[in-house]
Design a protein that fits this description.
alpha/beta
Length: 512
């Protein structure tokens, strides 16, 4: 049943059946991940579930990308584990609030557009590394902790049952869409495996073995800690890192959904929503979070394209916390593990392997480096930052080699240097080597019609070159140089000839 209506003033086509079923499926996959990372960080399991509820609801209603799912993601809580162990949970809540403020400022000042600077090889590496992390996190579910707190792998019949149910789940998720796409395959797989386990009385690991999911409504709570400069010094770096990690993962996920759905999300609006959601977490006892790639893919694969599924998933989690815990705690972990393994497989960018022999070696290196950092350090922000820096350096090196100078002398004895290629920090040395102030004639013209001045290093190089010609009592003209660069070359102002009409002021970064 399809209809066009307005949901929370967002006009869009909504397939209610798909949204409803997708929401239930997403809720089922969010619960174990939120619980796992909360326990990993030494927090109450409810802290993770509250984060899943509040992050999902706020970003679904106010976010800039319908179909995207946010929750208590491991990427953000992992960077706060050291803070939690050293200062306690109250400092965590304060940090999450401050991180939310940073994220809102990014959206308000419209800095979300800078996600465009992340190259495709970095995206491939990020998603491939994340796919491996998601898969390996599911492998961890094949371990069990005994009464002495010692972790060991499942063995014997228990291992065979868990493996068999997981493989059955994977098979259902893979083959069911070939029969019909009317119902999300992930939800069907969870229900079938749940029915088999309950019907035959099979003893296997369930959600209850991870933690209890029963609780009350989240209550408003101002973090109880000293309101001082010392407190700010403690939480500021953690908040900055958390905000960066959360926004990078969220905006990369937004770009991924844009490609899958062939629509356009709003990065700045999403940044504000992420910040508002994290501030809500800090005041209501959640551990904070960001967009969740795996759950977003589950949502999209289930047919969701609107905000409704995210709202339903969040409300479902709240209902489970309040009244549905006894039922949810009986769901076999094998079913959830199988669903998430399939998500990992679909997250992996297999196309990056098929085109690897057609990509530049530098792009291959960047993709592999980002993936390895993501897998080894679990630090998505650092991995993306390293990838962007390497890509920028490669770009700079390639462009540094493109600076050219065509030289000729006209009938009046004036020597011309026609420059082509960008003049910036990487190319200034090669640029300076092309000139011979001692042996050049008394009048020299450098034509920048096919070149651009990019940075201060380039302007400094022109200033030094002008001075060299002045020292030789020779005249240097810089033609077709932009007006903003002319104003900065104070020392060479007397010998600069500028054609402003042919070369107006330019900007590197567009406003929108």
């Amino acid at each position: 049943m399809k209809t066009t209506t307005a949901l929370f003033d967002f006009s869009q086509k909504i397939n209610y059946k798909n949204e409803l079923l997708a929401g239930f499926t997403v809720a089922m996959t969010m619960i174990p991940e939120s619980l796992s990372f909360a326990i990993l960080a030494g927090l109450s399991p409810l802290t993770g579930l509250y984060a899943a509820f509040m992050m999902g609801l706020v970003t679904a209603v106010f976010g800039g990308r319908p179909g995207m799912v946010s929750g208590g993601a491991g990427a953000t809580i992992v960077v706060l584990i050291a803070l939690i162990k050293s200062h306690g949970v109250e400092y965590l809540f304060a940090t999450v609030i401050l991180a939310g403020i940073f994220q809102m400022l990014v959206g308000i000042f419209r800095w979300g557009k800078f996600v465009r600077l992340i190259p495709q090889p970095v995206m491939y590496g990020f998603l491939n590394g994340l796919a491996v992390i998601i898969f390996m996190a599911q492998v961890e579910q094949f371990k069990i902790v005994n009464e002495n707190g010692i972790t060991s792998w499942l063995q014997g019949t228990t291992l065979y049952i868990m493996s068999g149910l997981t493989l059955l789940t994977i098979a259902i998720v893979y083959f069911f869409p070939k029969i019909t796409k009317a119902i999300p395959a992930s939800l069907v797989a969870i229900l079938i495996v749940f029915g088999i386990v309950m019907g035959f009385g099979i003893h296997t690991k369930t959600v209850a073995d991870i933690a209890s999911v029963s609780g009350n409504l989240p209550a408003f709570h101002i973090p109880y800690l000293p309101f001082s400069l010392n407190t700010l010094q403690i939480i500021f770096p953690y908040a900055l890192v958390m905000a960066g990690v959360g926004l990078i993962e969220s905006l990369l996920t937004l770009s991924m959904v844009d490609e899958i759905t062939n629509t356009k999300g709003n990065a700045n609006k999403e940044s504000v929503a992420q910040g508002l959601a994290n501030m809500t977490n800090g005041f209501f006892g959640g551990m904070g979070g960001c967009a969740m790639v795996a759950q977003t893919l589950v949502n999209l694969n289930a047919g969701s394209r609107a905000r409704l599924s995210g709202i339903i998933a969040s409300i479902t989690i709240l209902i489970i916390i309040l009244v549905g815990a006894p039922f949810i705690e009986k769901i076999p972990m094998a079913a959830l593990v199988g669903v998430m393994m399939m998500v990992a497989i679909s997250t992996f960018q297999w196309v990056s392997i098929s085109i690897i022999n057609k990509m530049p070696k530098s792009d291959i290196f960047v993709g592999i480096t980002v993936a390895l950092i993501t897998i080894i350090l679990h630090n998505l922000a650092f991995a993306v930052l390293v990838g962007v820096v390497i890509s920028a350096l490669v770009f700079a090196w390639d462009n540094a080699k493109r600076i050219r100078a065509r030289k000729y002398t006209d009938e009046n004895g004036i020597k011309y240097y026609q420059i082509s290629g960008p003049l910036f920090f990487g190319s200034v040395t090669a640029f300076m080597d092309k000139f011979d102030p001692v042996n050049d004639p008394n009048e020299v013209v450098i034509d920048f019609r096919e070149s651009r001045i990019v940075d201060m290093s380039a302007i400094d190089a022109l200033d030094k070159l002008s001075k060299k010609y002045v020292q030789e009592n020779k005249k240097l003209h810089l033609k077709h140089l932009s007006e903003d660069c002319r104003k900065m070359l104070k020392n060479a102002e007397a010998v600069i000839e500028v054609n402003v009409q042919d070369d107006p002021t330019y900007k590197v970064m567009p406003e929108k």
